[in-house]
């Protein structure tokens, strides 16, 4: 502003200039140009030759090449052509609202079903794909998946492709050496921790440091669905309960019983380094999703096994975390029919097997006819989710990406200062309220 | 305020002749470009700070509510305190140490170029890449902890970045490591500009080294100080990459700066209105400090 106002030479022209600048500014504010600017940026879709753009956040080397195989296989089929555009996952996450509101958007995007997808569906940003759910490719899908992919308005807006599971992972050789068994209840779990601690090993590794603070939310999710049940958990994350309720306090009381057994470096190491600590016998167990296998050496995978998160209250039906990945399409796509063609093909057993073969192979296909990797670990994981009374997604997927940072702050603070739990929960509720009231 | 002085400086009689169109074009075209790419988005930012916006639906005008929220936002208070601390420690130390390094390395001696290059080298690296290296060093069982255990300080080893009492300081170190080289180069250029005759005259008069520094070097560096101050204030307030790469403002906001808080509010919590209000605060702070200094500098120049 300083430079602007001192440029004109005479006072008269300066005043006129200022008036002009003010008028332009005011006019622009009135016409709401500020918002329209958001729809012009970011759309990186190609318009050439009617190709369907698939914008993918799967940027790790294995997953990226698996996606390339997938798109190549689709293009071999003829008629409709697709192009893959891989974006770094962090960029993808922050740019997703821009992609969806763009006037010339990427046609199809990788993301998550459930509450996260519904946030966008409620703003009419997602393509209604109810008709492809009646096609043979998707007819065998489970009712749970159908529900998960339906928006609150009753439209199907998502096509799932794969899912994975969370469990308490450990090394079989270590459990044999220590002469211990997998626990099934919380008391057995605490006793096991005590035994492992007696061997001079930190019983529980975490991996909530170095940019992966969200891993701690798995503990909150699991404790909450074991203590209060899956429905309470979803309601809490949707803002229908409060984080400073006595039910949530009970979750943290239970967590406190296990805190002495956590690795003191739990909030200093990223989950990849925490995986290394588990493999190098510095920690005994770790609650983690199967994606950690990407960071583990292949020859060590055979020694890994997992058990279900222990039961705390036998009256509460045992739900599991089974985060589902897949695709949704932008409502503003110019190629709706072609996109639906690609989406229904991505739901086939053929497509899902191509992807699983190329990726690390610990994910499970959503198509009941598709074959998984077939290792004992994957079989056990599939049985875990198929036998679950209810399936939750994960903290951010059951709420919104915007709520995740509030959990990261609250849980990291709880791990460092468990005695301040009351004030932590009050702050968490206040921070969450700001997100819910958006 | 700067406007008043700028006006005073220009008060000199002008010819009544018309400005040639070419000159007008040279002034207006860059002004238009600047207006479109700089001032226009800035005005939008101001407007957004008066709204509630999630980046998808149209923004809702809510007046000054975002600014009122700041008054009661404890994270904002932490961020302001940390930013002040950052400005004092990062700014103060880089100015003092940069000047010290420049004084040490100003004489042309054998091998002095090597040391200058070594100190300047961190400026060349990307700060995000630098931060990744430092992150590995700060890790439990990383280089720093290993070195401390090696010299018998094992009891002091620490998860440096994960402890709220050390996180902010642990982040300042890599930022300083880079900034010192930059400030040193600015001061080296300033020192080169001082007339050696001044020092010779002082020596003839029997001035001590300290007196030479106090009465010749410091006053002669005044113009460089203005540049260094602006650079330091701007760099402090926009320090973001190194903090974000190392701690993301955590653990639980203990190393939060205004810049990281602005980013996480706007792009993680998707509260773009409140994020814009934070950006306006950062702008006012930076502009206030620099403008008041420039006004003083111009006054002294008169």
Largest interface: which pair? A-B, 49 and 43 residues
Cα-to-Cα separation, first versus last residue of chain B: 15 Å
Q: Given the helix and strand composition of chain B, which structural class is it?
A: mainly alpha
Helix content of chain B: over 70%
Count of individual helical segments of chain B? 14
- Relative strand content of chain B: under 5%
CATH topology of the domain at 82-221 in chain B: MetI-like fold
- Indicate the percent of residues in helices of chain A: 40-55%
Strand composition percent of chain A: 5-15%
Indicate the overall shape of chain B.
flat
Low-confidence stretches of chain A: 1-49
Based on the coordinates given, report the CATH architecture of the largest domain in chain A: 3-Layer(aba) Sandwich
CATH homologous superfamily heading of the largest domain in chain A: Periplasmic binding protein-like II
Radius of gyration of chain A: 25 Å
Helix and strand arrangement:
The complex is a heterodimer of chains A (438) and B (302).
Chain A: H1 2-6, H2 11-31, H3 33-36, E1 52-56, H4 61-76, E2 82-86, H5 89-101, E3 108-111, H6 115-121, H7 136-139, H8 143-148, E4 159-163, E5 166-171, H9 172-178, H10 186-198, E6 202-205, H11 217-227, H12 230-237, H13 246-258, H14 271-279, E7 283-289, E8 304-307, E9 319-321, E10 324-329, H15 336-346, H16 349-358, E11 364-365, H17 376-386, E12 390-392, H18 395-398, H19 404-416, H20 421-436
Chain B: H1 2-10, H2 21-48, E1 51-52, E2 60-61, H3 65-72, H4 74-104, H5 112-124, H6 127-138, H7 143-150, H8 167-192, H9 196-204, H10 209-220, H11 222-238, H12 241-246, H13 258-268, H14 272-301
Antiparallel strand pairs in B: 1-2
Helix pairs in contact in B: 2-14, 4-8, 4-11, 5-8, 6-8, 8-11, 11-14, 13-14
